[in-house]
Amino acid sequence: MLKSKQQKPPWLKRRLPTGPTYEKVRDLLKSSRLHTVCQEARCPNLWECFSRETATFLILGDRCTRDCRFCAVEHGPDGPPDPDEPAHVAEAVFRMKLSYVVITSVTRDDLPDGGSGHFVQTIQKIRNKTPNTRIEVLIPDLQGNREALNLVLMAHPDVINHNMETIRRLYPIVRPQADYDRSLMLIRYIGEHSLGIPVKSGLMLGLGETRNELIETLENLLQAGCRMLTIGQYLQPSKSHLEVIRYVPPSEFNELRNIALRIGFTQVASGPFVRSSYHAKEMFNALQSKDLS
Predict the structure, then answer these.
(1) Domains of the chain as residue ranges with CATH
(2) Which residues 6+ apart lie within 8 Å of 100 measured at CB?
(3) In this model, does residue 44 exceed pLDDT 80?
(4) DSSP at 7
(5) pTM reported for the whole predicted model
(6) Nearest alpha carbon to residue 220 among 177, 284, 263, 267
(7) Cα distance between residue 152 and residue 9, in whole Å
């Protein structure tokens, strides 16, 4: 069993920005009956992102059919998706004046399409309300259902993200209901059928992975067509979740970023506090600028 009693190092201590903007965004989300992955997954960047008027919206409810041992989202959906949720998200995007939004979801293995239709409706509602807003989707593996994946592809979001999360050996421990090869297949399928939509993925460190295993995973992702990558530190959400095996120093995150860029990734964000949607707008804009140059 993965176990550690390490204390958090100094580089993981940060001041939490609050203020009127943060409170405004929090109140807006509450009044709209919306969920954000920022809140549900207890993201360490919540205060920063809210204070910058950005958020990653969590659709399909706030409970997941899976029970991954690293994730703080509650287990067990108790009903069908809210049919009004896509419109509520679009309204929040409009009121927050977002030029870039990330839409993610809990995993809904109880739905025939895995919730892909709900993603499509949310994309369409946002486009109808704020046509100039860029939309990134962070999708679950949809159980490898290509019909469901094609629905998302045909909605043509600006970026499609699916997180690998960890290396192959740790999947049975970290993501027991997921499958490394299925996630890799999904990323490859997106890369082959996305008509130019950038493919993104993310990894978390500190769960017992080795350097060689990380490099192998980077190479797997690159060969599958992934262009954008985020690498961050795993932080234990509660005592019932997997404990941190190792706190990776910032210097190693910088080294991994350089390795990823050297082998062929176009955009890489790597650091202790990096999460899959952290500075997503900046990464997309940098990618666009590079493609135009």
Answers:
(1) 16-292 (3.20.20.70)
(2) 54, 133, 134, 135, 136, 280, 281, 284
(3) no
(4) P
(5) 0.87
(6) 263
(7) 40
